[in-house]
Amino acid sequence: MADSTGITEATVGVGGAAESTDMVLNIGPQHPSTHGVLRLRLVLDGERISRAEPVVGYMHRGAEKLFEARDYRQIIVLANRHDWLSAFSNELGVVLAVERMLGMEVPERAVWLRTLLAELNRALNHLMFLGSYPLELGGLTPIFYAFSEREDLQHVMEEVSGGRMHYMFNRVGGLKEDLPAGWTGRARQAVAKVRSGLGRIDDLVSGNEVFRARTKGVGVLAPETVHAYGVSGPIARASGVGFDLRRDEPYLAYGELQDTLRVVTRTEGDCLARFEVLLDQTRNALELADACLDRLAELPPGPVNQRLPKVLKAPEGATYAWTENPLGVNGYYLVSKGDKTPHRLKLRTASFNNIQALSQLLPGTLVADMVAILGSFFFVVGDIDK
């Protein structure tokens, strides 16, 4: 259209044509120093998400293939790294699979020690998300409290294993070595200190009006989606799916801890419920740790591992072991051809299954709520990409 000056103007993208045009938005991939390299491909209809696709694989390191080139002692160093917040639990699943293949019994003292350290590792994992999730929604203070509590647990974990993040303390047949002198007393003090500190995080976050407004009723995950996608752990239990291997298929010493073990559930299935489940589960992990320390005090001194041959070979066959890791169910499918290295070791990680449910959950939600929903899924990207 030409005006009186002779200049021609064109107006583009108004009316029905603009309203029917979808916007494709890429969230990520992000730098590894943030929450990890995950990409979400979102199709938007105005401010609402109409389609969502999690795109994974940016951190893939081929751990499952590398298992095939290392013997049964060496694969532990790979196993404890995919979920770097749950290193002890990752090691544990692998050695349980190998021990099952060998038909090996582990000394009782090692069983209780493994259970104790697994629960301390669970609390460490959960404290990270209890601090980082409010941070993603604009709350800075809780992460300082969470890291303060984490340091208390990190000290005792580092003292017993020598490792700060990747403990390398599990061995086929038990544990690397026995406890340092006086360690159980220091562990009790750390557990008590963290338990008292959880109240600060609860007071700061759970009753905060802004936090509740951003999370209550937001990102509701239906139980049907939980079952369809194999979602597990705190996310599934926040939607009312009360599955927990520690209760439903006990391993280690959990069969004797049923009076202490609480499977925490909610029915709302929203972001707030997922946070509340994580907080209550942390409290229960500390209760289980205290129960393990009580039991260890009653046990007589004894070995914490089995003597193994110089070259360890698993018999030909296949086995499957699974554990209730902090983020959900981890599975370990081990195939052996009688050699000193696994023929195949397939990992079923909790984060991988959990994150797939976003393709069902995000459509229909607002872009502004996407960060709140994504953060409430408590995933580790290395656990997705392996």
UniProtKB/TrEMBL annotation:
Domain NADH-quinone oxidoreductase subunit D: 137-310, 312-386
InterPro entries from the UniProt entry: NADH_Q_OxRdtase_suD, NADH_UbQ_OxRdtase_49kDa_CS, NDH1_su_D/H, NiFe-Hase_large
First-level EC class: translocase
Subunit field text: NDH-1 is composed of 14 different subunits. Subunits NuoB, C, D, E, F, and G constitute the peripheral sector of the complex.
Record's bilayer topology term: Peripheral membrane protein
Keywords recorded for this protein, A-Z: Cell membrane, Membrane, NAD, Quinone, Translocase, Transmembrane, Transmembrane helix, Transport
Species whose genome carries this gene: Streptomyces sodiiphilus
Family statement: Belongs to the complex I 49 kDa subunit family.
Protein name: NADH-quinone oxidoreductase subunit D
Membrane-spanning residues: 361-381
Record's subcellular location: Cell membrane
Recorded catalytic activity of this chain's protein: a quinone + NADH + 5 H(+)(in) = a quinol + NAD(+) + 4 H(+)(out)
Enzyme Commission code(s) on record: 7.1.1.-
Functional description taken from the UniProt entry: NDH-1 shuttles electrons from NADH, via FMN and iron-sulfur (Fe-S) centers, to quinones in the respiratory chain. The immediate electron acceptor for the enzyme in this species is believed to be a menaquinone. Couples the redox reaction to proton translocation (for every two electrons transferred, four hydrogen ions are translocated across the cytoplasmic membrane), and thus conserves the redox energy in a proton gradient.
